[in-house]
Amino acid sequence: MASYSVNLAAVARARRLIEARQYVLDSDWGVVQPRATDENGYLDRHSWHEYGEWFLGRTEGANEETKARYAFVYGDFRRVHRSGLVACVYRASEWRHKDVELAAHDLLQVLDQNAG
Description:
Blueprint: E1 4-6, H1 8-19, E2 23-24, H2 29-32, H3 36-45, H4 48-52, E3 55-59, E4 70-73, E5 80-81, H5 82-94, H6 98-115
Parallel strand pairs: 2-5
Antiparallel strand pairs: 1-3, 3-4
Helix pairs in contact: 1-6, 5-6
């Protein structure tokens, strides 16, 4: 099983987006989560660093500047999705990646508090 560390740049970006009210509170994550074509399109226009800021986990041992380096996407490359954060909490919890789970949970609390 892969091992992950929390991507602090992604946590910071998510917080900035939440503070700027760039979020979606009600969405079907299975429908709106980025697909490979969305990821490729984003990478055509942005750096690997910017791409990585959309993923709460960094895969230990994976090469830099590869998609395999990043896990636990939380948004659609424009906005944070509450359902994306919930999915991150669930998936990280399911596979016992406690640090990522707690980072996603904390962001979910910030989002809920901000959204009222």
